[in-house]
Design goal:
307 residues, alpha/beta, 24% strand, Rossmann fold, 10 helices
């Protein structure tokens, strides 16, 4: 899929080196088609890395997609240059009157903080409610999935005693749903969270359809009846070394992090891990864009949310 992003975005050169088709703004203006409009609300601290991870996964279909990067507020970032945010990100006030075919809300490093103490909780609540009427389908990742459960189902976050970190087996439950078309019956996915998503709780207290889960992870993939909301409790967008970087970061900060399970060869962090979830991740994002966004969205953007 040719994803259309600003020519100077750092991810453009990263993806080009990987032979991933990134369409320049100049070339895109000469294509006589209606591209999909995709909004990414990036809540992760290392925004430039996260941009590349998601754009890499969104690059696997023949659809042309225009990417708009959204920041939650104007708070100064310790991990991303202000010049980068000013150049490539928009504020909510700039997009609130528009409608989008798809939206991704990333995870955030806020697992152990009560929602009401999150600096931008009121704004996030506003954006999530806005997405329900202005976006054809929104995908929530990890912490954002727990936030969306609170907003849409009044379901308080439930914490685990120990952090879930590693690569875990997921079991397919509803193989007929187009979102999981092409999935193996069992597949692997990385997780990094304190939030818990017990299967019984999601079944009893929401109307979500659980498409995949695992004995260690609980719910992994669930969707609303309208398919307007997709909940992914793991991090299929992660690179092979992302969990290793998180582990070493926490070690360097003086913590005693849990060694990611099923990740380092021989459970030895001196060995380089392999990416064993790449194919599943590519299929997930490709299916979401095709079946939940492209096949469902209105041709006239102004009609989205008004059906």
């Amino acid at each position: 899929m040719p994803i259309r992003i600003p020519d100077q975005l750092p991810a453009a050169s990263v993806l080009a080196e990987e032979q991933i088709f990134v369409m320049s703004e100049e070339r895109a203006t000469h294509q006589d088609i209606r591209p999909l409009e995709l909004l990414i609300l990036n809540l992760m601290p290392l925004k430039i890395i996260t941009e590349s991870q998601y754009l890499r996964k969104l690059s696997n279909t023949p659809l042309q997609v225009n990417i708009t990067l959204l920041r939650i507020d104007d708070h100064e970032s310790r991990h991303t240059p202000k010049s980068h945010l000013d150049a490539f990100y928009r504020g909510f006030q700039e997009v609130r009157d528009r409608r989008y075919d798809g939206m991704i809300v990333t995870g955030a490093a806020l697992d152990r903080m009560p929602f009401e103490e999150v600096r931008y909780w009121d704004r996030l609540n506003e954006i999530l409610h806005w997405s329900a009427s202005h976006v054809t389908s929104t995908l929530f990742s990890c912490w954002a999935a727990s936030a969306a459960l609170q907003v849409f189902y009044d379901l308080p976050r439930q914490e685990r005693e120990r952090k879930l970190s590693g690569v875990f087996r997921q079991d397919l439950r509803h193989g007929t749903d187009p979102l999981v078309r092409g999935f193996d019956d069992h597949f692997l996915a990385p997780h990094s969270r304190y939030v818990d998503f017990p299967v019984a709780r999601i079944e009893e207290e929401t109307d979500l359809s659980i498409l995949a889960d695992g004995p260690e992870t609980g719910v992994y993939l669930a969707v609303s009846p309208s398919r307007r909301q997709v909940y992914v409790t793991g991090h299929p967008e992660y690179d092979a070394d992302t969990l290793a970087q998180e582990y070493r970061r926490d070690l360097g900060a003086g913590g005693r992090p849990t060694l990611p399970e099923n990740y380092f060869p021989y459970d030895d962090p001196s060995f380089s891990p392999s990416c064993v979830w790449r194919s599943h991740a590519s299929i997930l994002f490709s299916n979401w864009l095709n079946y939940y966004v492209y096949q469902a969205t209105a041709y006239d953007l102004s009609e989205i949310g008004r059906e």
